[in-house]
Design a protein that fits this description.
Blueprint (H helix, E strand, L loop, with lengths): L2 H20 L2 H6 L1 E9 L7 E4 L3 H11 L6 E10 L2 E9 L6 E9 L5 E8 L2 H9 L2
Parallel strand pairs: 1-6
Antiparallel strand pairs: 1-2, 3-4, 4-5, 5-6
Amino acid sequence: MGKEDEQRNLATAEALYAATASGDWQAAERLLSDDLVITEASTLPYAGIYQGRGALRELYDKVLASSLGGATISVLGKLSGGNHVAYLLELVPPSGEALQLVEVFHFGEDGKVTEIKPYYFDSDAVNRAVSGA
């Protein structure tokens, strides 16, 4: 995997964030592989494995329906290496407790996203934010 591929992957991740933020699911799904897998840890309110090109929208619908739907998101940093891109993020839900996470994207040879794994620093804080506690 060369530098050009890493730059392409980073640009794809940026385009995916932009498409989902604007609600352009057709554009978002063009960036995802048919066999996309999103894994949410068992300690999170959205625990499970989401599969297929529509998985990201399914997960977003669940998140937006919760108290995290009103969260502001700040990108703290981005890293690209090999077939992976990682975003360092901070979500601030209406409850005000900042949630820090790293979202890791894996890319196939065709440049489409094949896997997304979010890693939250404090899953208890996520659960408190969702439950309103």
